[in-house]
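Exercise 7. Predict the joint structure of the components listed below.
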Amino acid sequence: MPLKIAIVGAGIVGSSIARVLSMYEDFDVTLVEKEPDVGWGSSKANTAIIHPGHEEEPDVHPLRARLCREGNALWRQWARELNIPVKWPGELMVFFNEEEEKSARKYIELAKLNKIPGVRAVYRDELLQMDPSVNPSALGAIYAPTAGTISSFEAVIAVVENAVENGVKLLTEAEVRGVKVVDKKVRGVETARGFVEADVVINAAGLYSDKISHMAGVDSGFVVRPRRGEYFLFDENVKVKPEKLLHTTPTPITKGVYAITTVHGNLMIGPTAEDLPIDAKDETSTSEKGLEYVWKESERLLKELPPRAKIIRTFAGLRPEPPGGHWRIEAYDDPWGFVNVAGIRSPGFTSAPAIAQYVLNLIKDKYDVSLVRKKHWNPHRSDIVRVKDRSLQEVDELIRKNPDYGEIICYCKTVSKAEVIEAIERMKKAGVKTITIDGIKFRTRAGLGMCQGSFCRWRMALLISQYAGVPLHKVVVKKDLYGIGEVKALLKPTSQGG
Amino acid sequence: MLELNYDTVIIGAGPAGIAAAIKANELGLKAVLVENRDLLGGIPLQCVHPGFGLHYFKEDLTGTEFIYRFFDKMEKLGVEHLLKSHVHSIEPVAHNEKVVNVITPQGVMRLKTKTLIYTAGARERHVFEINIVGDRPAGIYTAGEAQTLMDIYGIIPGKEIVIIGSGDVGLIMARRFALEGAKVKAVIELMHYPGGLMRNIVQCLQDYDIPLYLGHVATKVVGKKRVEKVVVAKVDEKLKPIEGTELEIPCDTIVLAAGLVPNLDMLEKIGLVIDPYTRGPVVNEFLETNIPGVFVAGNALVINDLVDYVVEQGELAAEGARYFIENDGIPTTDWKPVIRGRNIRFIVPHYVSGKRDVILYARVRQPEKNVVVAIPEVGWKMKQFNVRPAEMIRVKLTKRLLERAASVEKISMEVIPGE
Amino acid sequence: MSERELTCIICPASCTLKVRTEPGGSLKVEGALCPRGVDYAKQEVTDPRRIVMSVVKVVGGDLPTVSVKTNKPVPKKCIQEVMKATASIELKAPVEIGQAVIKDICGADVVATRRVKKVNSI
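Solution:
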């Protein structure tokens, strides 16, 4: 009998654990997510950096230091296997004065301790050749060549698709309301979509991992605070395109403000690092103050910023911040079967594949599992076939096989009807209950261009209506409906609401 | 990939493109009209309100009726067109040769053409372009999107509406929502004067008791799943929000009518020069851009307030294309720049030759009463009781009039206080 | 009735009109730059009218709605009545421009302003 495992939270940590567990015959895994789709918490709105691991203090955070380095290496393999957009330009931690230089140089020492290769100081002439977009008033930078950047939302989607392909069951819109414990043993989780039976419950609930932990009666003093980060995203066609992943020298509470060219070619600047009250776990609003801070810091970091008219989006994300910055990865005796992978703050995304391996070993030892590899475990996941990535000749051939590739839905990002339909089908196959416009957006990139969806949102809605079989006004945009009814709804007495 | 040859390829089948295609056919050009959507007509097809065609047809038509008159004409002439066809890229091969790569459900087509008429319209400014902070929930629509949903696909977005922007688009959507039984809580306007025509203030807002907040800015969106309220503040003379003047307006829907931006990405990639005041291209009197043989008309050229002007521009671009083809390029001329004088925000076209009739389109910077609009170089004057940024000034200058300026190097338009 | 101020909606000049009821009941209009403004003001004060525009649901067509308008201005107080009527009907494609979809309501017909073609569907 395989061990029944419920993983709470389909962010990058929970999804990665699901993927790793799916390699073995020993587990029957259900991935439980409260949102309509995977990766909608901290995994979605972050800086998308794969960190080298030279910013972790090994004596204070030994696990973070180790798993960050291992995760960085694993992502190279995972991104290849799962076809996740990623690039490895290396990063430059830029310093502007001797005091900053002193702080920055500390990371060379950490790099030595953590065995991170290639970290060194570069000075102005070399720095400006390495990346001409840096403000020429910089003194120098710490260069870490193993840093990368990934499409974070596509990464979660890819990991989940692959996990499901290998037997994991996904349950969306299934907020956990309780952890069932009988005789000091975990029996499963109560969710908004019913009871999920489990011998082992893995709490990977990110910002809410304190609540889940408390539900199991574990660690009642443990709290996860939301730390907010605000960002600007610019259009693809701006001239400022940092080649490296640039950031300012960190202060005690932040890794500094980054300026990066994302894997999709957009300039992104941010984040702030603002500690919010403990109950503000959904406070992803942007603020004038926060955005202004990002703007000013980026002006300091970069030679120039694009005009504000080229901003296509501002957003904020929340990162989980556990006490002392310590991750809590532990399998408990009481209740037996409860595993915390809680308070996974930065470098959580980078470390996720390594955390998953670590959790696998934890479970193996704790529950005495033999670990029999599945014979037909498939490490690969193909990406959606995208018109934008193809030559016109190739597009022509695609259209001959399927005319839907010849109907472009999103003009800004050249996304075809075939891609939207494929995204819908993939969501259904993965077990996503409600097909949302945002779900389509993150899978196809439709609506992520300069017009921010004003031309294509309703087209996506029409396709969802058609292919998921819901009336147009009942299509879900993010977490609510696109419309309230047929156009005459408010004129008919029966449907006139309060 | 299918390769086809044309005299002119027209991109975008809204009123400008349709008018250009009809005119090009009438002038004997081999033309094709390329449209992204699955239907022709562009925005007028979803404009169910009247006010169209007063100049062109001398009748008051709805947008829908207006555009159908052109459909009938297209059909009669057999104007060639492609639907669901997306322009992927434009290759400028030579001054008289462009290749337009088009993705269609029938395959990729390479349209080789002598000239190109670009009539792809404008895009709406979205929520991230208006300096608003806060949440990003469901319930935020652009006006055009809301109009598409209501008046084409027959669904209503919400029932308590705040509209941002008092241009005609915002005013007309306010009335549309009110007519269908929604409560329009406010129309928010940054400037201290309305953005739309006075008659629309009366017919669209006053008729339905919809409050207009002039000199106000929406500063923050609040709402977790769905919009719950919008925070609005008064602005000072520099249009910055004044602290302490914030007020909260509960609503479930925000409709953005915060202006339009000409949609020119495709041409910018091949070196189009943009006028920062119109955000459209710099053009000569044929509406030809700095890229030889590329003409732009309609809202891609300049944001118009009347469809009649859009049609006029489309027809002019087609005439320009014919002239270009006849002469293997627009002949070298001593172009006179058209200069923005007092209280003029922009003028299109940017260059005139003085050798033929020309129509100038301009907007003022700010409202003024009892003024004279003048083009001093040709001795042209027009007394105006009222000039407002919402109302485009359209002036036709005849060749005869322009000959008076034969010896000057430029002409200019200005608004001067009346006597 | 004594005096009322209106903004003329006939042309972009947007004249401010003052309408006064003279002893004996006749109306006097001031501020109009043209005679059309005078007519507008008199009409607006005695019997204000508007064109009403909307959409009506269509089944079996290439689009799910058809746009409509009243073929002449209706009294302002009738706007609601016309709108309610547009909510109570459902048309079958095809619909032709000019086709009366509601007859004789508040002294006008509601006519289609867009064409909806019939499509063969399930």
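Discussion. Residues 143 and 173 of chain B are 7 Å apart (CA to CA).
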